[in-house]
Design a protein that fits this description.
The protein has about 170 residues and is α+β, with helices and mostly antiparallel strands. Helix content is about 35%, strand content about 15%. The strands form 2 sheets. The chain has a 3-stranded antiparallel sheet with strand order 1-2-3. It is globular.
């Protein structure tokens, strides 16, 4: 990633209260009966896949945050790399419901991860949380930055400083 892109993201935004219900996620965007969760599990699957109707039951996934291998889809969460609450406080507060839905279902911002890692992260930015697997830090930082740039979201100074430090070493 070119560091020149780094100048494209403004530093801070101020937001009112966040309500997750304002951000519709797991939509069936293409009308094929599989919601975004299923679409991500299918796209990231690396082995035989089992479906029950439209629901993904099993496959083979390697958790990018931990390196663990998973067969049971029920053990995985789909993480918003840039969490919905982070998007809200970074400029998404005034988006239309349709834009919030598009962000919440953007495949570039979604990864299947072990539930405990996703819950450990919560809505924290990279200044407060990074994946436990150090070899994934460069990819995580680059994806965070690209999602923020794509959706024209702001960054606070601690977040920007942490990402710059990681990306300079990649």
């Amino acid at each position: 990633m070119k560091l020149a892109l780094l100048a494209l993201i403004p530093l801070v935004a101020f937001a009112g209260s966040y309500d997750r219900l304002d951000w519709p996620y797991w939509a069936d965007v293409d009308g094929d009966c599989q919601n975004t969760r299923a679409e991500i599990l299918i796209a990231k699957n690396a082995g035989p896949l089992t479906l029950q109707g439209c629901r993904v039951v099993s496959g083979r996934w390697i958790g990018p945050y931990t390196g663990d291998v998973f067969i049971n889809a029920g053990r995985l969460d789909i993480d918003h790399i840039v969490p919905l609450k982070e998007a809200h406080i970074s400029g998404g507060e005034h988006w239309t419901r349709a834009k919030k839905r598009a962000f919440a279902n953007d495949p570039e911002n979604l990864l299947p991860v072990i539930a405990r890692a996703n819950r450990s992260k919560g809505s924290k930015d990279p200044a407060k949380w990074m994946p436990p697997l150090a070899r994934y830090h460069c990819e995580y930082a680059a994806r965070w930055w690209l999602v923020k740039a794509k959706h024209r979201l702001t960054m606070d100074s601690a977040e920007r400083t942490k990402l710059l430090a990681i990306l300079r070493d990649c």
